[in-house]
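Consider the following input, taken from an annotated entry for Prophage P1 protein 40, minor head protein (Lactiplantibacillus plantarum).
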Amino acid sequence: MDINKLAHALAKILDVKDPVFQQLFALIESSHHSQVKNLTYFLRENVDWNANASEADIKDLTDAVLDLKQNANREEEQVLATLLNNLPYKTNLDVAQAQARVNIANMGLKVNKLVQSKQVDIVQQVTKLTGSGLGGYNTQLRRRALYRVTAQNEPENTSLDLIFKHANKLAIDLDNIIKFQMQNHVNPNSISKIVAKELGVAGKPNPNEDLWETAMQKRYMSTKADMERILVTESKATQTRECAKQYSNLGFTKLKIVTRDNPHVCKYCEGHDGTIVEIKDAVVGMNVPPLHPRCHCNVIPVQMDYKDVLSELN
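Applying the prediction step yields:
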């Protein structure tokens, strides 16, 4: 096994140009666009927020909730409960907030599936890399590793909880944005007419009118950063765990931390570059990457020099 080539190949597994990042950003932007459409619909002229919602709007909402639950597995449904349980579906305000949460839940599920898919891809790539040059690799171990990621039956896989932790914060913030808009919304056309009539000049639109759009845009930008951090960190954690298992299967007992060949590597990771850790003592986030959110460091196996072997024998 050429360790230098392996280190170079491992660094490419989660490259900044990986298309998975564009897929993630597209998911978040699509959710943002849907939220704008949702709130714009309820801000139409002469809407009464406290009036009972129309039967058609309530049906659209209940259909969306049912569709969402049908697309979720049991574990995901438990997480969705924090977003959807005990929500009233009566007034226009209720429906607007509930639709916002359904949208966020859908976004969370899609992001989680994207992270899962990338984790499976990483397991495949690591298995192929460590198996090449050794006459193949244990396909049974590979299948078990893939199942472990896709089934999410290990407590160490926390991507779903992390995703919905941030999704729940987003839902609460959107609730506040919607309530603020409900309390402050005034038809800008009516203001313009009054100003034009009283002053004889064209009136300026209500300054609160576009405030919700700005607030929502900023909040989704924050969510995009949160989800990107989860994708990178959880994917790198999967890569490190799989590397450690494969190295151990190949007979190695130690691994070494290597940083990216990049001038922007943080000082903390630079301090760990070259650190050797016993595989049995490796703990992701403690002594092996990811050492911090968005960490791109890798681990390679430590090959003993013949001089070291002779030294130990002597």
